[in-house]
Write a structure and sequence with these properties.
single chain; alpha/beta; TIM Barrel; eight-stranded parallel barrel; 8 strands; 17% strand
């Protein structure tokens, strides 16, 4: 039995719009709810939420219940971290702060078994193979791992064409918050030069034959981003959407019950 197909990777390669949700709650319950909502993907954030392998495994199980593609963002692109997350059952990874093509190449190699890479052979005792049930996992997995690298600094933008050209990178994701801070506009990703830089980056990513990704929580911007060429679109984070929903409901109740 081979490693499972990766429909998200196939959709990214085909240029199909994939809409998803960031998950920072660290909650399998929230993942189960989100996974049943109809998102194309949900991202389990191990960078700005706790990096907890046991918790990540629980969230992966919850997303599988709804048939939603899971992406796991690792805290760093270290080989051992990538190995752990893949063995937990993640098929698609996002790696932050990839500034050079050499870093991108190292990330790809960390997701591949030898001789194409350096991923350690431990799947036969890991969740990813059903603890050995998928007997051919190691011989078939390399081509089924999705790799998303984040370009979120001026250095990454300067090296963007070379990063995009790295074989095995499926998507380059622009990090607007960190990029705007690095460009001198901390807290203002809507600054005109940041907006122009992101638009140019999207064009370059698509010209290189890779999917372009970004996160934005303003519905008024979704059409513009799609028109620019974004096909991997994050539309918000679970904790932010919950907080906004709580606040909106509370405001309605206050208004309705005020004397």
């Amino acid at each position: 039995m081979p490693a499972p197909a990766n429909p998200l990777k196939a959709a990214m390669q085909a240029g199909q719009m994939q809409i998803g949700l960031w998950q920072n709650s660290g909650s399998a319950l929230v993942s189960e709810i989100a996974g049943a909502t109809g998102f194309d993907w949900c991202l389990i954030d191990g960078e700005h939420a706790p990096y907890d392998p046991a918790g990540i495994a629980g969230q992966l199980r919850a997303l599988e219940l709804g048939g939603t593609n899971a992406v796991v963002r690792v805290p760093v692109g270290a080989d051992w971290v990538i190995k752990q997350v893949l063995d937990l059952g993640a098929q698609t990874l996002m790696v932050p702060m990839v500034d050079t093509p050499q870093q991108a190449q190292q990330v790809v190699r960390a997701t591949r078994y030898a001789p194409e890479g350096v991923r350690g052979l431990g799947a036969s005792v890991a969740r990813v193979s059903g603890y050995g049930r998928i007997a051919d996992y190691a011989t078939t997995a390399n081509d089924r791992i999705g790799v998303i690298v984040q370009a979120e600094t001026r250095r990454a933008i300067a090296n963007l064409d070379e990063i995009v050209a790295v074989d095995g990178v499926d998507c380059v994701f622009i990090g607007p918050a960190d990029l705007s801070a690095d460009m001198g506009h901390r807290g203002n990703p809507g600054a005109p030069d940041v907006v122009d830089t992101i638009a140019d980056a999207i064009t370059r990513i698509r010209a290189g034959g890779k999917a372009a990704g970004i996160i934005h929580d303003d519905p008024a911007e979704f059409g513009r981003l799609a028109a620019l060429g974004i096909t991997f679109l994050g539309i918000g984070a679970d904790v932010a959407l919950m907080r906004a929903g709580f606040a909106e409901q509370l405001a309605r109740a206050r208004a309705a019950t005020s004397g």
